[in-house]
Amino acid sequence: MARALDLRETAAALERYRRRTGELTVAGVVLLVLAVGVELLPAVAWTSDVVGWLVVLGLTALGFGIVTRAIGARMTHVLEAGTWSAHAAVPVGRAWGRATVVLASPGSGEVWPLKVVANRLRFDAVRPGPDAVLWWCGDPGLGGVIAPPGGGELFWAKPVRGRAARRRIVARAEREGLLSRPVPRNPQPAPEHVASRPKPTGRRWGVWRWVVLLAAVALGLGIYGAERSMDDPRIDLTILSRQEGDACTVGWKDPFDGTARTGPYRCTPDPDPVLEGWDTGFVVSYGPWKGDLYNADGEGAPVDEVVDWLGGLGALGLLVGLVGGGVGRWRRRAVTPVPYADPDAAARVSPEKARTEPSPTYALLSARAERQTVPQTRTRRPAEADVREVPWWRVRGLRRVSGLDEVLVAAIGCAGAGLGVWLGVGIPAYVIGVLMTGTLLRTGFRLLTTGRPVALLLARAATAPVPVVRRYALLYDPRGGAPVLVVFPAHGGPDDRPEGLVPLAPPGTSNRPRLGLPSAPTGSVELRGWLDRADNGLPIVVPWIEGRPLWPVEPYAEAGGSDFEEHLEWLAPPEEDQEEASAP
User: Fold this and answer.
1) Does the global pTM surpass 0.85?
2) For a disulfide at 447, which of 55, 68, 390, 451, Cβ 3.0-4.6 Å?
3) Share of the chain above pLDDT 70, in %
């Protein structure tokens, strides 16, 4: 195939990654600028706390933005130079450290233990699906890009260091059957999925990003010095001798180590006769100037001038860098239009591009469902309440569909933040309270407008009196591993075509999403509902298998519709159907 970046889904994913990087960087700069603005306000009791939190959050966001920007540049280089290849993959959980995945090289039989540069929550997006396949582009000895089939979510991965760690991880992957899994077919994108993406003409920010970076560091150091100077201790001085003007030699006791010290000092002019021989000053409490003496006007130690210069140059540099970078980017956009303005357009399939070949048969899809079945030590999750006997909000699956659990978590967070405010925790409690309140309002609005009506609709469909019996094949979406129930006529043979499908919500936990799914990949299913319909006219149907409901995330897609064809295109591509049909 062509280079990896010519795949439209990959180019759109890289554009989204860059956009997130830019948002982090901008957020960090904005927070630092806000810190400067708060610092310039008249001093009140909460000013120093707010400035400190803004600086910490701003530097954190800016640091993450810089790191992710560097990773994005490496991804771009690798995806422009290499191609995608499909590999059998096994995730290896680690109690400490980054998530790890092991790939099998289809040609040489080697295995590549790789560390995924992503937090564990985001790693779920690239966790190998039911086919146990991941795409790879790069050098396994240096690092590269890893993605789920389709190339729509990108992660940087680097080799695991340490011979003992590599052996331990590879041994675990081999015990889970990595080497016995079939060799996946390499990606061969259809013409409509290939993009004529022009090569980059240059860096987006050029020298301006370094101006912004250095200015942000200088501004952060200046704000840090200004904040720390508020904690400089005030001490009494003994005037040992006076020189011309206000120059003096004084002695004092070091407040940090208790030693007696002497040194030059700019004494107070025209002191009160009662205070003859005495004066007061301040001692620097941070940095390389720690222990230096200065007076109330900041004279005597160079730290005051250094902090002022860092703050002033940092603010000026940020302004110049942002304006220069913004003008440069605007000029480049005016010359070259930005490709992939709609990153989600690649995920949509128009009806005229739908599958033109006949739908796969029951024999083909049931065989595919058998291959996707992975034996589990636990197959059943603790039973949830029966929707026919209790209100919908007591049913675990409906609570998840409606978002009620998120509302309860946000409410508990608000209560905890309120308790922290009452106990006098301070600014952290206020920040957490604001965040939790916003989350509660957002999740509560979604619960009232969409979550609760959908839950009531599903509960009514699940308790419909007359079921429709059909056969099913349980498949998994290769884009994320979500279960999909493909429905066939109740009485028929291996050549029957599917008459509909139902995308399901994984009933298990985040670590074991398949818990609660049917133990058999094929069998009989009772479909209840049919009377209520969604906004697009598709019926609301709840499947019952083995005496318990499986909650859908979308309406029942009937054969012949565009939604049906789009889902079936991903579940069973036409090329794979032809290969399976010709296999002995």
Assistant:
1) no
2) 451
3) 77
